[in-house]
Here is the input.
Amino acid sequence: MPMLALGTALLFVSGLLTEPAGAQSLQSVTQKLEVISAGGAGGLEGAASATQALSATAGQGIAASTSASATQNLGAGYGHVRARPSAVLDFSARADVGTSSATLIFTTPGNDGGLGSLQPGTRYLVRVASYTAPDTFTPSGAQISVSTQGTSPGDAVGLAATGLIPNTTYFAQLWTEDAAGNGSFASDRSTFTTLAIAPTALATTFLNVFYTSATVAWAARPASPPDASSMTAEGYVVECSSQNFGVLGPDGVISSSRTLVVQASTLTVSAPSLVIDKTYYFRVGALNWAGAANYTTLGSTKTLFQAQIPAADDPPFPSVSSSAITAAWLRNGNLSQTAYRVDVSTASNFTGAVTSSTTYNLFASTAGLKANTTYWFRVDASSRGDTTPFYVFNATATLTPAPLPAAASVNAVWLTSASVVWLNGGNPVNL
Here is the structure.
């Protein structure tokens, strides 16, 4: 057969995974190309100056385009037609990456552009590495080799990558290779970061608990990790929740605190402020390179109780007479069993004679006061051994006594007016 001078060749592969069982030929006006089995024989016929072309139905043949040049020759010989598995286009790591493992997920490709199912003997090859250079990411470096048996084009598939190092960023790529060694193009490259090892809890978790904050502790990481597979982290986050992070009811993180100091072992949670006398659940997470946390639960504690200073009700003095005054105040967040001490004095600094009383009510009535006299009131709150400062009311005065009727109250009566008299009833003479 004469030699054929060719130029640039562009090859589009399509067809079955295995070669056709027998030889077949496709004719054009100027050339003949035989598609053969592995054990058959055939050749290419045509003029040296002609453009050679071949096309076939999907899953059966091969399409090729050749052009002549003065420097390239194509000799006669065997022509083998093979199809390759299609490339995976959605290769990624599932969200639940662990400290030493990850699940790589993708959609199963078909054979030759999805035209057929993957054939027996086909494998998935996955390369996972924590670096991209000088590693060339080729199928020969794959650490994972799994049969495609039982999968069909379009299936969602997951492959487990194990033996990874904590707090490390990895890159992964996948190829599909059939029994004859025909491989797909590489998938898109996936990037993921393993979790840092969760912190270790201590016997004494809560160092300080206050009214609106708490300080927690955990075991510190070593200054120099003993090996590359263990105790590294990029920082820590401490979180608290009043509903145990959704276990007891719908509730997210109430308050949190974060540090990027790897050797830190304590944090105070205070923003936003915790509520007094309330149980909170705590957890501490070690942060990885991507900022994801791996948590250790620290248990629960209750913030300290603090009695709240009462506030004046509206009106603050709902009842005032010439000899008694009733003062009223608001609970202002105090417990129902809170005791209130009320002081009454004729001096604004509560010196001299002071009348005191204690009540669990939200009001106090003081009798036996002098008429037409200014008094000052103050009230504090006590509960569980905690007593607040006093709340001081604005001053108020008792009323003057009511006048008493005289023996003859009507002194005189005229056509358009009358004159009446009464007794002062103890009121000052200058009223």
Remarks:
- The CA atoms of residues 242 and 280 lie 5 Å apart.
- The mean pLDDT is 79.
- The radius of gyration is 46 Å.
